[in-house]
Amino acid sequence: MGQGLSCAATQEHGLFSAVQSGDLDTVKAMLERDPSLTHQTTSYDRQSALHIAAANGRIEILSMLLERSVDPDVVNRHKQTPLMLAAMHGKIGCLKKLIEAGANILKFDSLNGRTCLHYAAYYGHSDCLQAVLSAAQSSPVAVSWGYARFVNIRDGRGAAPLHLAARQRRPECVRILLDNGALVCASTGGFGCPGSTPLHLAARGGSIDCIRELLAWGADRLQRDSSGRIPYLVALKHKHGACAALLNPSSAEPLVWPSPLKFISELNQEAKTLLEHALMEANREREKNILKGTSYSLPSPSHSDIGADDNISEASDAELCCICFEQVCTIEVQDCGHQMCAQCTLALCCHNKPNPTTACLNPPVCPFCRSTIVRLVVAKVKDCDDADQDIGDIGSPKMRKARKSRNFSSEGSSSFKGLSAMSPFGKMGGRGSGRIAADNEWIDKP
């Protein structure tokens, strides 16, 4: 009997070693001799062959095990599923295969009460994070739980995936979660200091990139944790000077993704990327002014960035934005077809403030024809023949004046004056702060 147990243990160990090393032929041969090995687990952690394959990215072995009807939601000693281990180790191929096989993305482990979404955010695997979020949109989870609730799912200590990503310095995961509806000002339970927001946790971790993303989405610099500390004090305590400078309530307010854009029903991904880039660049200029003269000054732009404006062709000069006359038109309003640069588009959307009495936002309107903006796309680039006909003497003031008169109607001239009176971002700090003044108090936008 003792010899038999010894042989079984040796065979079991050989299976797990073969799975870990990716030896598909050996695994096949062993399972053909003894199909019951698919249900064997390691003695202490109770890891199955499927767990080991998922954690090590052995997708061929994983696929073979799933074809043999192995439960995709089998759990180990800590109630972790193979899907969680794939998310933990960033094995995107195995993760997608498990999701295709019906693995439950809403399973919780017994260590910290976390799901595969928490694991992907904590370990910074943005591709796995995006795959799980995409699966949640079309799975029973979206119906039973609701997608927004899943994105903000809490672990056993009250931490949402956004809290974990911010604390672990994962800016790409922070951006993805915010883009999918994560609550930027949500407080934790027992994770970190109770009552911490993602901004508190990013300040503690010293990630200026995470702080930048959170501020751009309207994170409140004045929100306090249960100890009464604002993120600025947290950054100071942990000696993150540059982070503290940006979080200092006395420094200029950051621009935020403007709420009026929520009225735009069709904002394609290319246009959104341009607008996000314009917003982040404006905030970088703000950061440079805040950090100027300190030991935390941001690095100078690369040579390629400095020369970017100088390399714009003369042909593109004919398509300068008629609001600022500085940037090339990159955004087009449909269906009227008027064009602006991304910076002025953001300034336009930040310009409309909600009514303090009703907290009602007005949709932005095109400054040229006054029509409500319902769709933004990337501006169309004219072909060479059209460009030659329109360019003429591009350096001539007459040419620019003629182009200005073509784009502006008399009805829209008041909007032009309102926007051109200021540079697109020169005085937009307060307007882009994501708050409105009412009875001498600041309240969040709805």
What does this structure look like?
The protein has 3 domains: 12-153, Ankyrin repeat-containing domain (Serine Threonine Protein Phosphatase 5, Tetratricopeptide repeat, Alpha Horseshoe); 157-254, Ankyrin repeat-containing domain (Serine Threonine Protein Phosphatase 5, Tetratricopeptide repeat, Alpha Horseshoe); 263-295 and 319-351 and 363-380, Herpes Virus-1, CATH 3.30.40. Helices cover 47% and strands 4% of the residues. It is built from 23 helices and 6 strands. It has helices spanning 2-21, 24-33, 49-56, 59-67, 82-89, 92-100, 116-123, 126-137, 140-144, 147-151, 161-167, 171-179, 198-205, 208-216, 231-237, 241-247, 269-291, 303-306, 314-317, 342-351, 384-391, 397-407, 413-420; strands at 266-267, 331-334, 339-340, 375-378, 435-438, 441-444. The strands form 2 sheets. The protein has a 4-stranded mixed β-sheet with strand order 1-4-2-3.
Q: What fraction of residues sit in β-strands?
A: under 5%
The whole-number mean of residue pLDDT values reads 77
Calculate Rg over CA atoms: 27 Å
How would you sum up the major sheet?
A: 4 strands, mixed
**Category by helix and strand content:** mainly alpha
Spatial strand arrangement across the major sheet: 1-4-2-3
User: What is the name of the CATH superfamily of the largest domain?
Assistant: Ankyrin repeat-containing domain
* Through-space gap between termini: 71 Å
Summed up, the helix count is: 23
User: Helicity level, as a percent range?
Assistant: 40-55%
CATH class of the largest domain: Mainly Alpha
Say how many strands there are: 6
Outline: globular
Here the CATH topology of the largest domain equals: Serine Threonine Protein Phosphatase 5, Tetratricopeptide repeat
Uncertain residue segments: 1-10, 300-318, 351-356, 384-446
Give the second-level CATH assignment, the architecture of the largest domain: Alpha Horseshoe
Domains (count): 3
Quaternary structure: single chain
* Element-level helix/strand string: HHHHHHHHHHHHHHHHEHHHEEHEHHHEE
InterPro entries: Ankyrin_rpt, Ankyrin_rpt-contain_sf, RING_XB3-like, Znf_RING, Znf_RING/FYVE/PHD
Organism: Manihot esculenta (Cassava)
Catalytic activity: S-ubiquitinyl-[E2 ubiquitin-conjugating enzyme]-L-cysteine + [acceptor protein]-L-lysine = [E2 ubiquitin-conjugating enzyme]-L-cysteine + N(6)-ubiquitinyl-[acceptor protein]-L-lysine
ANK repeats: 45-77, 78-110, 157-189, 194-226
